[in-house]
Write a structure and sequence with these properties.
Length: 120
C-alpha cells in the first residue's frame, strides 16, 4: 500500500509565503511523476504544478513566477514553495504521485489534502 501525506498548509496574509511538503511512503518500488493540485470551494480540482522523475517541471499559468515545485527522489518527497500568495490561491492543496509498488504495477495516488488560506 502506498500513502501520500501532505504538510505545511495554513493561514497566511496576501503577499506571504508557504511551503508544502508531501512524502510518499509504504510499499514503493519507484515514484514517477509527482504534482500538486488544488480545489477551491465550488470549483473543480485543477493542476498547479507537476514534476517528472528527471526534474522537468510544468506550471499552471496562474502560478508561474510565484510557485516552485521540487522533489527529493532519495526521500520520495515533493515540495511546493508558494510565494506572493493571493486570496485566490485559497484552496485545499493535494499532492499526487504516479508510483509503482512493483515493477509491473503502477497507478496514481493522492494525498488527503492540506488547507491553504490566504487572507486579504
Amino acid at each position: 500500500q502506498v500513502q501520500l501525506v501532505e504538510s505545511g498548509g495554513g493561514l497566511v496574509q496576501a503577499g506571504g509565503s508557504l511551503r508544502l511538503s508531501c512524502v510518499v511512503s509504504g510499499s514503493v518500488f519507484r515514484v514517477n511523476a509527482m504534482g500538486w493540485y488544488r480545489q477551491a470551494p465550488g470549483k473543480p480540482r485543477e493542476s498547479v504544478a507537476t514534476i517528472s522523475s528527471s526534474g522537468v517541471t510544468n506550471y499552471a499559468d496562474f502560478v508561474k513566477g510565484r510557485f516552485t515545485i521540487s522533489r527529493d527522489n532519495a526521500k520520495n518527497m515533493v515540495y511546493l514553495q508558494m510565494n506572493s500568495l493571493k486570496p485566490d490561491d485559497t484552496a485545499v492543496y493535494y499532492c499526487t504521485a504516479n508510483a509503482q509498488s512493483t515493477v509491473l504495477f503502477k497507478r496514481d495516488y493522492w494525498g488527503q489534502g492540506t488547507q491553504v488560506t490566504v487572507s486579504p
